[in-house]
Amino acid sequence: MRNYNLFISHSWKYTDSYNRLLNILYNRGYFTFKNYSVPRIDPIIDAEGDIALYSAIKNQMGPSSVVLILAGVYASYSKWIDAEIRIAQDYKKPIIAIEPWGSERTSLVVKNAADKIVKWNANSIVAAIRDLT
């Protein structure tokens, strides 16, 4: 079985959504992946300034084969989501926008950058990953 390399963009202010996404991916049968996201236990806190943080995120995203971004409306107001989109585009990594469960409003910034937009559903997310990698 193929192992997929994922970078999951997230904000630690919205940890619950990130953790729920990880749970549905880990519990999805016949799908394995390595998570290249910035882990909470080892956040990029020693990066001094925006340039250092940008470089650290770029290094973290490098080995991934696809970038998943939660397309909640908060993403429209995050300069780091914009940076992650630019990094993904520079690396020519496909972007999958995931519309959060039950959300009525989503980020147009993320959706406009996405190669695929999917609903909050393990089968849809996994199908998009497989299709783009």
Please tally the helical runs, counting DSSP H or I stretches of 4 or more residues: 5
Task: Give me the count of strands.
Answer: 5
Query: Compute the gyration radius: what is it?
Result: 14 Å
CATH superfamily: Hypothetical protein MTH538
Kindly, what is the distance between the CA atoms of the first and last residues, rounded to a whole number of angstroms? 14 Å
Task: Strand order, main sheet: write it out.
Answer: 2-1-3-4-5
Total individual domains: 1
Helix content: 40-55%
- Main beta sheet: 5 strands, parallel
Q: Strand-residue fraction? A: 15-25%
Query: What's the shape?
Result: globular
CATH class: Alpha Beta
What's the pLDDT, averaged over the residues?
A: 85
Q: Which CATH architecture would you pick?
A: 3-Layer(aba) Sandwich
CATH topology: Rossmann fold
Overall SS class: alpha/beta
Low-confidence stretches: none
Order of helices and strands: EHEHEHEHEH
